[in-house]
Design brief:
The chain is mainly alpha-helical. The chain is 61% helix and 3% strand. It contains 10 helices and 2 strands; from the N terminus they run αααααααββααα. A two-stranded antiparallel ribbon has the order 1-2. It is globular.
Length: 216
């Protein structure tokens, strides 16, 4: 484990010596992601995947430069320690927001939403400033989602609402992210319905693309 931490520290140093957006840095960051994925904190909460997605975005933005938070400092601890600390904070935010949202929602509304789960969450980074220069990973995700060559994202939508499909939601959840509250108001659908659909249908397709590109 110590050897892996040293390897990660070396890879971070090498990656940050290359300019943002360069193929060399992207290749090294992808290698870091592969090595750290299996060591990240895991749990079965319904908002875990959203929190994990936010963690990888935070990693891309702040591993070398402080774009949306404090840049990674190897003196603080290993990359895994840094990422796990952020991931756990996001999970706590999701949990607290879920509890707060449930407390102010009319129970009948929740039962009528049709989501059937407890995905009534708010995005903890609604007010996060957009990075002036999106990391290459995000650029590639945006290109993939907009192109949708197979038409799979557009054809996967909430029943009776072809306008609320995976292509639309994935693009809207990329930085600068639209919050679930904003999306709920835009589409006239409950937060649990949107969040549940996104987690069940859109995130698996996004993960499949990320894996095929070597990001995960």
């Amino acid at each position: 484990m110590v050897e892996l931490d040293e390897q990660l520290r070396y890879l971070v140093t090498q990656a940050c010596e290359n300019p943002p957006g360069s193929k060399e840095r992207q290749k090294l960051l992808t290698q870091i992601i592969r090595l750290t994925t299996s060591r990240l904190w895991r749990e079965s909460s319904p908002y875990y995947q959203d929190a994990l997605q936010q963690t990888w975005l935070y990693f891309c933005r702040n591993i070398c430069e402080a774009r949306t938070g404090q840049a990674y400092d190897p003196n603080y601890g290993s990359v895994v320690t840094w990422l796990n600390a952020y991931l756990k904070r996001r999970l706590q935010d999701f949990y607290l927001n879920q509890q707060r949202e449930q407390a102010i929602k009319v129970p009948l509304k929740i039962r009528q939403s049709g989501s059937g789960d407890n995905s009534d969450t708010l995005d903890p980074v609604d007010n996060l400033a957009a990075s002036p220069e999106a990391p290459p990973i995000l650029d590639n995700v945006k290109i993939w989602a907009e192109a949708d060559f197979q038409g799979e994202l557009r054809s996967t939508y909430i029943k009776g609402r072809s306008d609320v499909n995976c292509q639309v939601l994935i693009l809207k959840r990329l930085p600068p992210e639209a919050s679930w509250k904003e999306l709920s108001e835009e589409f006239g659908l409950s937060i649990p319905t949107l969040s549940s659909f996104y987690q069940r249908q859109c995130l698996p397709r996004l993960r499949k693309f990320a894996e095929s590109e070597g990001y995960l």
